[in-house]
Amino acid sequence: MTDMIRATGLVKRYKDVDALAGLDLAVPEGKVLGLLGPNGAGKTTAVRILATLLKADAGHAEVAGIDVAKDPDGVRARIGLSGQYAAVDEHLTGYENLEMVGRLYGMPKSRAAKRARDLLERFDLADAGDRPSKTYSGGMRRRLDLAGALVAEPPVLILDEPTTGLDVRSRQQMWGVIRDLVSSGATLLLTTQYLEEADLLADDIVVIDHGRAIARGTADELKTQTGGERIEVLLTDPARREDATRILAEVAVGDVQTGDNDRELTAPVKGGVPQLRSVLEQLESAGIDVLDVGLRRPTLDDVFLSLTGRAAEDADAPDEEVAP
């Protein structure tokens, strides 16, 4: 499978700070690569280099088979870029914004006009297409910005935290739009601060920290690396905690942990559902009532915490990297 984005050993330094310290990336044609990392990890720096907005100090990168350093114009003709903030002219209508982008790409006026109307329809903006974009909600502006990235029908899309700051409903709408793009065969590099977003949209994930890739794989592979499944039990009576702990210890592959209120027990296990079934049978036989019980797999949040030493919510601001 052809890699539509390939970067090897990317380095970018600002004085004494290494924004990138030898980053490798590869995105096969028609796939989505999610780029995760704490605030300041280097995500936006990587995006800027791949989009020809910044020159690397070392390393090599190609987009759609074109060297980003040797032929930046060729790369720009083949990518669509949507950044952390919607880049729309608020004094123009939605239609005028998209038609202008088409004209800047050198499209004939009639083709640019048709493309603008088609994209307004596709992004559920047709009814608002003739209104000034300053009247749009945040979600509408973000969809318009993404539509602008698609005017020239590029084979490669680079989305830098496209749903940052949106409410839940607008974020879910954007996820639907992005899924449609992927199903149509787009190749996508997606940086995101929302782990649910990466879990939902990305074929593969690269976690970066301090400018380096520290883990890569599918969401399931990363979760497995973090460490197995856990049985969680919430007891009705905390006085039965020791009895329940003994039952869980028989199937646990590590220590049984007790929660803050003495009713919550967590046991790391292997074997999943059969182990859960065994625990339930033994709890019932011992007359231990539970309010809740379940089998929990690691989440990407667990992966993030394990790999970077901080939870995702501690890294949920836009990527504030050192300015050149």
TrEMBL record:
Gene Ontology molecular function: ATP binding; ATP hydrolysis activity
Any one of the GO CC terms: plasma membrane
Compartments it resides in: Cell membrane
Name of this protein: Daunorubicin/doxorubicin resistance ABC transporter ATP-binding protein DrrA
GO BP term, pick one: response to antibiotic
Keyword line: Antibiotic resistance, ATP-binding, Cell membrane, Membrane, Nucleotide-binding, Translocase, Transport
Membrane topology label: Peripheral membrane protein
Pfam families named in the record: ABC_tran, DrrA1-3_C
Organism: Aeromicrobium chenweiae
Family statement drawn from the similarity comment of this UniProt entry: Belongs to the ABC transporter superfamily. Drug exporter-1 (DrugE1) (TC 3.A.1.105) family.
InterPro entries per the UniProt record, alphabetical: AAA+_ATPase, ABC_transporter-like_ATP-bd, ABC_transporter-like_CS, ABC_transporter_ATP-binding, DrrA, DrrA1/2-like_C, P-loop_NTPase
